[in-house]
Each structure stands twice: as C-alpha cells, then as structure tokens.
Amino acid sequence: MDFQDIIFEASNETRIAKITFNTPETRNAITAERTIDEIEEACKIVNSNRKINVLIITGTDPAFSSGGNVKDMQEKKGMFDGTPTELMNNYMKYVQRIPKVLYSVETPIIASVNGPAIGAGFDITMMCDIRIASEKAKFGETFLNVGIIPGDGGAYFLPRAVGMAKACELTFTGDIIDAKEALKIGLVNYVVPHKNLNEKTMEISKKIAAKPPEALRMSKRLLYMGQNMSMNDLLNQSAAYQSICHYTEDHMEALSAFFEKREAHFKGK
C-alpha cells in the first residue's frame, strides 16, 4: 500500500514496526477515511509478519494526534456528514475500525507520545499496551467540551487504564493533563525529555523484541483474556498455551542460553 497519511516502517532485523501519524497540518487528526485505511493496513501487515515483535505508534511533531477533525465536524464533512442514522453508521464504518484493529494486533504496542494526544488521539494511546510520554505530551478526554461523547471506544479503554473514578473525572471535566500528572495517575509508564523520547521508546522496544515471538504473543493474549474470564477459565487457557510453549525450539534455546550463560537467539519456532 502507498501510505500517504502515515509513515510505516518495519524491520525484520530489529523485529520492530512503527506507525507515525503524518498529517501535521491537521495535528495528525485520524478521522479521514484514507488515514483509517492506512492504519488498518499497517496493523494487518504487522500481524502477518511473524518476525515483528513490537509495534510503535507515534506522531509527527508537534502533536501525537488531535483525534477527530473538528473542522470537518463544523462543516459536516467526511464521516461527520449525514443524518443521525448515517452518522451512526459512519462511526462504525470509519473511526471505530481503529480500536478493533489495534485490539487485534498480536504483538505488544507502545505509544510513543511526542505531543498532545486529544480526544480520539488520547484514546488511541489507551488502545496501546505501554505508553511512553515526552515532557511535551498532554492528554485530554475532551469530547464533552465540543458537545459529543467518546464515540471511538474511549469509555471501554480509559477505565481499564486509570480506574473508573479517574476515568469519570477526565471524561466529565474534559480537562487536559500534562505528562507529569499522567505519570502520577498511572496513565503512562515513563515520562522523558522530548529529545530522549525515541531513545527510551527504542530501549523498551528492543527489550521486548528480543523475547520469544510466539510466547510473547500468547502472554499478551492471556493478559487481555484475564480481564473478561474467570480465574479457572484463564488457568485452563494458560495450561494449554504453556503446553505449546514447552514444545517450541525457542523454549529449549532459552534453557540452553540460561545454562550456558549466553544471550538467547529466538526464531519463533
């Protein structure tokens, strides 16, 4: 696919892929049909390439993403055009494809938040597994400020990230918080100087990318299954996955490396 609204990079050598929102003229808004198509296609490529272990999502400075294009909202253009029924269908046809495709990504996803992440842009960070923020990052669940609700799945992801009470506060007030406050409430894993954001992101990405690919994917799957399953059901699923892992070449390589006191080299087999 010829990407125009995002930059997509993938390296089998580092096992890391990267999506960069690249429409700075709209502060990396993500509600255009082409943008959504490209995000979806990039995620499908990551899932189909078993040599990729990590996906990074970031934006072209100065913003991570402004979320919905408010100019299009005002002018009733693009996905914001139509009757109430047509608008409902547009949300399902367009922006709601983003949480679905990100939720389906099998590898860990790291949000490298380089600037403001507002509205749907904020919610995209919640759809990632780990969040690393520049000191320039800001976060806001600002839908009520423009008279709408979190229509992209934010009501699902935000309480799971920060708890119900804080999710209610952020949603009901529409307040924008800085990176320091985001770290305080457990919204992000790290806050670093802006110039060090890529370095910190790559440090964490490389550490994860070095793990056994199939066991890594299973571990992510189990963590999210655990949010909706009983303990007994999760234990049964864990036993099934574990039995598979014990018969992989990567498991035996990990044991050999441990006893030989060397770095392990995994092949995803």
Task: Give a structural overview.
With 269 residues, the protein is α/β, with parallel strands linked by helices. The protein has two domains: 6-209, 2-enoyl-CoA Hydratase, Chain A, domain 1 (Alpha-Beta Complex); 213-260, Lyase 2-enoyl-coa Hydratase, Chain  A, domain 2. Helices cover 47% and strands 15% of the residues. The chain contains twelve helices and nine strands. Strands 1-2-3-4-6-9 form a six-stranded mixed sheet, with helices on both faces. A three-stranded mixed sheet has the order 5-7-8. Helix 1 (33-48) links the parallel strand 2 and strand 3 (54-59). The longest helix is centred in the N-terminal third of the chain and has 16 residues, at 33-48. The protein starts with 5 loop residues before the first strand and ends in a 9-residue tail after the last helix. The model has no long low-confidence stretch (mean pLDDT 97).
Give the N-to-C terminal Cα separation.
29 Å
Contiguous low-pLDDT stretches (5 residues minimum) are none
Number of domains: 2
Radius of gyration: 19 Å
Q: What assembly state would you assign to the polypeptide chains in this entry?
A: single chain
Strand content: 5-15%
Shape descriptor: globular
The CATH topology of the largest domain: 2-enoyl-CoA Hydratase, Chain A, domain 1
Which CATH top level class of the largest domain fits? Alpha Beta
- Architecture (CATH level 2) name of the largest domain: Alpha-Beta Complex
Report the count of strand segments: 9
CATH superfamily of the largest domain: 2-enoyl-CoA Hydratase, Chain A, domain 1
Number of helices: 12
Sketch the major β-sheet. 6 strands, mixed
Summarize the amount of helix as a percent range.
40-55%
